[in-house]
Design a protein that fits this description.
about 350 residues, alpha/beta, TIM Barrel, two-stranded antiparallel sheet, about 40% helix, about 15% strand
Length: about 350
């Protein structure tokens, strides 16, 4: 395992992050303690040090279980957790980004994890009502109190993240150093805005669901007869069911065919593509596993070194259609209007904000 700098924090994290949504069985998609212990141990043995959880995962079981696992060797690990989503649907203050929910959620997470601080605290999602000044000041207070070292945000529009960071920097507060976003070979919409934002403000990207809910593991190829019982199980999960479109099945089939040519598993190829396609931005996929076999298969992506041609081939099987305003700004007509006859002689570099 190699290590990457997590955005402007300069915190060194393993090139894969272990997601622990599967730690616990309350949601019906996880695993019991012995299997989770084996996954955790395998990740640590491989050199992993970056572990992600959330206060709502399996009703707190994920954090409690992780707290037991990190009881020894805590200082060598980078532990991340999240807050925002409701922990009590009857209490209007038990969800959202506001200060009260932040404080009570963080204190509960620290108790479950058995640690006085977390290395990275994520805002789990934008609530569209808490003012950015309140949010960034409340988060900065926890940093100053020593309960949080670095900040991240998940599931928020690019303009919200950019505005929040600009506000924090102007007022001397702690900015976000990482974004946790839905990103994989079939869900690539963040490429339109978030990579430019990450590069301009020196933030890392941690893709969640990097294998599209299992679609990119090769188990649900369009060539498989009706995808069998495995496809039926996948379709039972609402998020996974949304992935089972005709277009996404074609992408998964093309990925599987390319993996066979290379001699690797489709999941390994999909993860290697995420890690290697944009070296200008730190990308750390969050991988989950219900058993040691799944973990070991995913870790195999670290042995793949893709050529520029292979990355371009993968890019092509699910390429995004250009959209406004980028489609206009990058067009030859607009560039000629902007720069005139000098255009061919301009040696330009990307703007970093």
């Amino acid at each position: 395992m190699k290590y990457k700098s997590l955005g402007l924090s300069n915190l060194w994290v393993s090139e894969l992050c272990l997601g622990t949504m599967t730690f616990g069985e309350e949601a019906g998609l996880g695993a019991a303690r012995p299997a989770c212990q084996a996954v955790f141990d395998g990740f640590i043995e491989a050199g992993g040090n970056f572990i992600d959880t959330a206060n709502v995962y399996n009703q707190g079981t994920s954090e409690r279980m992780l707290g037991e696992f990190i009881a020894t060797g805590r200082d060598r690990l980078v532990i991340a957790t999240k807050y925002s989503l409701s922990t009590d649907g009857r209490d209007p203050n038990a969800g959202g980004n506001h200060r009260k929910n932040l404080v009570q959620a963080l204190e509960a997470s620290l108790r479950r994890l058995g640690t006085p601080y977390v290395d990275l605290h994520w805002v789990h999602g934008w609530d569209a009502s808490t003012g950015l000044a309140e949010l960034m000041r409340a988060l900065d207070d926890q940093v100053r109190a020593g309960k949080v070292l670095h900040l991240g945000i998940s599931n928020a529009p690019a303009w919200v993240i950019a505005s929040a960071n600009t506000l924090a920097i102007e007022r001397g507060w702690t900015p976000f150093t990482a974004m946790q976003l839905h990103y994989n070979l079939v869900e690539r919409s963040i490429e339109r805005d978030f990579f430019a934002l990450a590069q301009a403000q020196d933030m890392a990207i941690a893709p969640w669901s990097p294998l599209a809910g299992g679609l990119l593991t090769g188990k649900f190829e369009a060539t498989a007869p009706a995808a069998g019982r495995a496809g039926a199980r996948l379709s039972q999960a609402p998020r996974a069911a949304r992935m089972l479109t005709e277009r996404n099945r074609r992408v998964a089939a093309a990925l599987a065919a390319m993996a066979r040519e290379i001699g690797c598993q489709p999941a390994q190829l999909a993860l290697a593509w995420l890690c290697q396609r944009n070296p200008a931005v730190t990308v750390v996929p969050i991988i989950g596993a219900r058993n040691r076999r799944q973990l070991d298969e995913n870790l195999g992506c670290l042995e793949l070194r893709l050529t520029a041609g292979q990355i371009a081939q993968l890019d092509g099987i699910s390429a995004l259609e250009p959209e406004y305003p980028e489609a206009l700004l990058a067009g030859e007509l607009f560039q000629n209007l902007m720069h005139g006859e000098a255009l061919p002689r301009l040696l330009r570099k990307p703007c970093r904000g």
